[in-house]
Amino acid sequence: MDEVKIIEIKKSIFADNDKDAAELRKELKNKGVYLLNLMSSPGAGKTTTLIRLINLIKDKIRVAVMEADIDSDVDAVKISEATGVESIQLHTGGMCHLDAEMTRQGLDNVAVNNADLVILENVGNLVCPAEFDTGAVRNAMILSVPEGHDKPLKYPLMFTVCDLVVINKTDVLPYFDFNMEKCREYVHMRNPRAEIIPICAKTGEGVDALAEWILKEVSNWKQ
Amino acid sequence: MDEVKIIEIKKSIFADNDKDAAELRKELKNKGVYLLNLMSSPGAGKTTTLIRLINLIKDKIRVAVMEADIDSDVDAVKISEATGVESIQLHTGGMCHLDAEMTRQGLDNVAVNNADLVILENVGNLVCPAEFDTGAVRNAMILSVPEGHDKPLKYPLMFTVCDLVVINKTDVLPYFDFNMEKCREYVHMRNPRAEIIPICAKTGEGVDALAEWILKEVSNWKQ
């Protein structure tokens, strides 16, 4: 097993997270670094999706990953072993989200100047992470088929703040009562401009569309 | 659609939640009311499981349900329509968990004196709800097969505080890399005394074992 860097995140001292997030975004813009905040429920397939995605784009842009987790380092090790890109683990010490200052603590520990894209894998949770701007350029979330197409009705804020909704585990669509059209409708009820990309991270199906989306995003950001 | 009572939960003013929870438990003991706190990720099948379970036990004991949700009333309506038992919705106003005082606000609004068992369906989240004693007699959680058997490694506190782990969606075991033995091992690593009951809420398989567990629990509590 590879060893990965583990950062123990400290609670933020800044009172105004929105201001702090806007500042972080400006700094990243100046450095030409694109930060993506990736959220989901536990087990929706964030890590598997990232491995597929990174292996499709790592020859075109420089990628680094920050894995936020309550206290394991399973995901950072997996990403590092499967893709070879820099991957660090952020321990939140029980905290259920990351804000901009906590994200900054992570960024201070990746080789940000050697990355075009930094992906923050947020804590697996559809409630708290949605409430805090991390300073990311975009928020993305993965909804997996087994969770059901009604989740935008039940977790409104998460779907309101996300620019991209990846629908994962499409290979098991035949075994679940998941209505893709209804899902699209509910997502757009929360955010009419949200991009929706169905994929199967296990087989790789659809991940090319995700790669295309992120490459275009990064290229626009660097202009 | 039936109408259900919707309670807007207010933030707690009590500083010592553990003390408050212990007091609530004592009051419930005196009234002979068993409170079960049911937790899970979004989409793990809490509501479907409850409907199956309640229909198996409602002729033997009196059941009421409190559905905590950020702001919809989908679940309380579903439960009420499918089982006929009293079901109220607790709106947490964005809060990601319930503590004892918030649970008490809910209990004040169900006909507690006419119930042997009150089930609190907590907010769908494996992080925050684990941190607060609600005053329940037992904590239970539902882990669904698509989420993966490694969840006890990644959400240690949730599995430490749960007396019962229901493993749902066993009908899709053939389509996921879910190792039941490893799951048992990881759950018992967090809590060696945890009961594990595999079920399929969709087909009803295994729910009889869950019914047996809860009937025995309620009967012991009322002695």
Low-confidence stretches of chain A: none
Order of helices and strands of chain A: EHEHEHEHEEHHEHEH
> What oligomeric assembly is this protein in?
homodimer
Rg over CA atoms of chain A: 16 Å
Strand content of chain A: 15-25%
Total DSSP E strands of chain A = 8
Explain what you see.
The structure is a homodimer of 223-residue chains. Chain A contains 8 helices and 8 strands. In chain A, 52% of the residues are buried. With 223 residues, the first copy, chain A, is α/β, with parallel strands linked by helices. In chain A, helix 2 runs parallel beside helix 3. Chain A has an 8-stranded parallel sheet, with helices on both faces. In chain A, helix 3 links the parallel strand 3 and strand 4.
Task: Write a concise synopsis of the structure shown.
The structure is a homodimer of 223-residue chains. The first copy, chain A, has 223 residues and is α/β, with parallel strands linked by helices.
How is this fold's topology laid out?
The structure is a homodimer of 223-residue chains.
Chain A: E1 6-8, H1 17-31, E2 34-40, H2 46-57, E3 63-69, H3 74-83, E4 86-91, H4 100-107, E5 117-121, E6 138-144, H5 151-154, H6 156-161, E7 164-168, H7 180-190, E8 195-198, H8 207-221
Parallel strand pairs in A: 1-4, 2-5, 2-6, 3-4, 3-5, 6-7, 7-8
Helix pairs in contact in A: 2-3, 2-8
List descriptors.
homodimer, about 220 residues, alpha/beta, eight-stranded parallel β-sheet, about 35% helix, globular
